[in-house]
C-alpha cells in the first residue's frame, strides 16, 4: 500500500486533502452549530459566475475568486444590516443570481466548457503545488484568527444575544468568519467539487455532534473523521478504480448513520 506514495499526484492529493480536513474540522463544526449547511452552495454559485468571467477575460481564477468571495460577504453583510432581508434569504438570493448568471454566460464560452466542468466537479488527482501552498497559507491564517477571536466566535455562535450584552461586536466577528469561509471555498473549489466541499464542511461536524460532549471535542472528532475519510477515499478510489469524490461522500454518509446509533439517548 505504501508504493502508491511514490506517485506525485497521489502525494499531492493526500497533502491537499489533509490540509482541507484540518481546516474544515473546526470550520465545519461552526457551520453545523450555526445551522448554515446551505451556505456552501450559495458561495459556490457566486464563484462559478466569476469563474466564467475569469475565462472570458483570460484572467487569473484565484484573483477573481478572492475578489468574488469578498464581494459576496460584503453583500450578505450589507443586506442583513441595512435592509429587512434575513441572512438566509440573502444567501439564497445571491446564490440563485450566481447560478443563473454562470449558466447564462457559459453558453458564450462553448470552447472552454471542459475547463469549467473541471471546476464544477473538481480534480483532486491533478493537484498542483500552488494549490497546496494556498491551502497551507489558509491553514496558518485560520490558526491565527481562531487563536485571536475563536472564543468570541464560539460565544456569538452559541449565544449571540448574550455575547452582544458583553460589548462584543458580534457583527464584526461574524463578518471575518464569513470572509474566511468564502475564501476557503474559493481556494478549494478548483480541487474539491461542490458536493465534496459540502460533505467536508457538514457531515463530519454532524457526526461529531452526535458523539462529542463539548465544542472542542466536536472539533477534534470532526477533524479526525475528515482526515480518516481522506485516507479511505484516496485508497479506495485508487485500488477499486472508483470516483474519488463519490467515494468520500459515501464514506462520510456511512459514518454519519453509524454515529446516530452511538448518540446517547435520554
Task: Count all strands and give the number.
Answer: 0
Assembly annotation = single chain
| Share in helix | over 70%
Integer average pLDDT: 76
Structural class: mainly alpha
Global morphology: globular
Which stretches are poorly predicted, pLDDT < 50 over at least 5 residues? none
The CATH homology group name = ABC transporter involved in vitamin B12 uptake, BtuC
Characterization of the model:
With 266 residues, the chain is mainly α. It has a single domain (2-261), classed as ABC transporter involved in vitamin B12 uptake, BtuC (Orthogonal Bundle), CATH 1.10.3470.10. The protein has eleven helices and no strands. It has helices spanning 8-33, 39-56, 61-82, 87-106, 113-121, 129-158, 160-165, 170-188, 194-211, 215-239, 244-262. The radius of gyration is 19 Å and the shape is globular. The relative contact order is 0.16.
In short:
With 266 residues, the protein is an all-alpha fold. Helix content is 80%, strand content 0%. It contains 11 helices and no strands.
What is the topological layout?
Blueprint (H helix, E strand, L loop, with lengths): L7 H26 L5 H18 L4 H22 L4 H20 L6 H9 L7 H30 L1 H6 L4 H19 L5 H18 L3 H25 L4 H19 L4
Helix pairs in contact: 1-6, 1-9, 1-10, 2-3, 2-4, 3-4, 3-8, 6-8, 9-10, 9-11, 10-11
Task: Give the key terms.
266 residues; mainly alpha; ABC transporter involved in vitamin B12 uptake, BtuC; 80% helix
